[in-house]
């Protein structure tokens, strides 16, 4: 939804004069993410209200410059297991018809859409059969890093810290962005050392990630969706399931090594000592314990990898987080504890769309970075259908968990 001036409205209203200029996909093991740009005829174009696309193009020809189109960069998610819902959404909104190609001769050739993730291979035939789309595949790691770099450099207040219920935005100097550790928590977890534009290395990872939380949670609590499981964890108390230091030391701290009585000594540890069956434990307590166990593990492994390379900044992305306060706090506490306060855990407002944004940006491999965040067109883009010029305005509340959008402007070729 578009959140300009605090108001909400549908991403696309078929009854409004809206034009889709570009669509890109990131189809992961758990979720399929869409990023697409739309322009309304009522949007400002080259600073003039109500200027039509045709008039702008004519202006472009007269001045031998490319017009700037103001619109919305929209985000949408679907469960990958329900990929047919994703296909129906694309078809109903006609997102694939705009694509990245001209529509002068519709049907003359298959439409190519940029896509990344394992699903770009797994569902390639399905997209072609149902929508006539050829998925133009981009490397998953390339897209992930490109998306993170772009958002950190261009979007105002993209990064923030969260600990002790305190959220604080971090001002990122794009000239001092690198190096950093990017931890992408999807179905599994990938950890990438990013040293510059197109310069990165996957240094570690773990199979214990979002898919683990969802899968075990489904088995243990009967929850039918990831969001339902997260919501359940809000109401839980992990101390009913986890064995704490205080449980071992008679309610006392183990101060000699810096462990408080409330520190988890063993996740799910109470289950081995209590004379209770699984049915005797509340589902919300199990969900809370599971979330904390996985988050603590990821936070610790992330810091250890940052330590290997002397990195002080760790950016966490991926749809596992979902702006969930307890998840972010647990990751932050783990990084803070193991680093003794020397390293920071930072989070991204568009955390789940890094790969999709990178896929979206991959249409331009010839000079996009020179065009970023400039207020005026300084040169024509090369070999692309568009290039992002700047982010005009982002979400008013700083959230982006899907089905939302940010205002931006693009160059139309």
Automatic annotation (TrEMBL):
Pfam families for this protein: Fumble (PF03630)
One Gene Ontology cellular component: nucleus
Highest taxon of the lineage: Eukaryota
Name this protein carries in UniProt: Pantothenate kinase
Classification via InterPro entries: ATPase_NBD (IPR043129), Type_II_PanK (IPR004567)
GO biological process: coenzyme A biosynthetic process
CDD domains documented for this protein: ASKHA_NBD_PanK-II_Pank4
GO MF, any single term: pantothenate kinase activity
